[in-house]
Amino acid sequence: MPKIAISGKGGVGKTTLAGMLALQYAAEGVPVLAIDADPDANLASALGVPPELAERIVPIAEMEDLIEERTGARPGSSGAYFRLNPRVDDLPERFALQFRGVRLMVMGTVDRGGSGCVCPENVLLKALITHLLLRPDETLILDMEAGVEHLGRGTAGNVDAMIVVVEPGQRSVQTAHHVARLAEDLGIRRCLVVGNKVRDERDRQFIRERVAPLPVLGFISYNAAVSEADLAGRSAYGADPVLDAEVQEIRRRLDELSR
Fold this sequence. Notes:
Helix content is about 40%, strand content about 15%. The chain is of the alpha/beta class.
């Protein structure tokens, strides 16, 4: 089953796409694990998880007792030795929130020493991501920030595709090329672009030309239903038939590439 990472500049709609893809797979009975690996964690909202449930989610990086138990060192401890291969195989079953057929886990942020720090919490997060990428029995959707910090050089090759979401604009296109370079350095085989918030053929052509040579997986039209769903605390999935059809076509192409 496909393992998909989704990245892009903040505000381009990558989390909306991640949530819609996860719910589309789940609606067809496909086992789905959605991972929120963005420090600005919003995937629960994009899935339509009610606030009273979402606020119960504790990011893995904030579970200090668990991190100490598994690595042998408490986060923030100075000069401590810790295990580099902690046990993580039981964590999805223990800490994933089930909602509308999707299982959701939130990774959280490592604040100390930068995202590349060799610290107990970062070691646990990377071990967990590695384990999830190797599980063959479920579709994995990783909602990431504009980078690949949670992926290790030895495991990123298990990602079937890195999707970079862009909107018609220079800054998001620049971010796409940055993410593509990082993905290539880690050995990710496919880096694909989804153009979001497009209004006309001019926007589509702008994206095609500016992201080249990266292939464009598909486009999502500007749609007020997305903003309305966000204001109401609902997922954009099911908010508009045109929007659903566009994401369905992106998913179909993804499945073809993953075979």
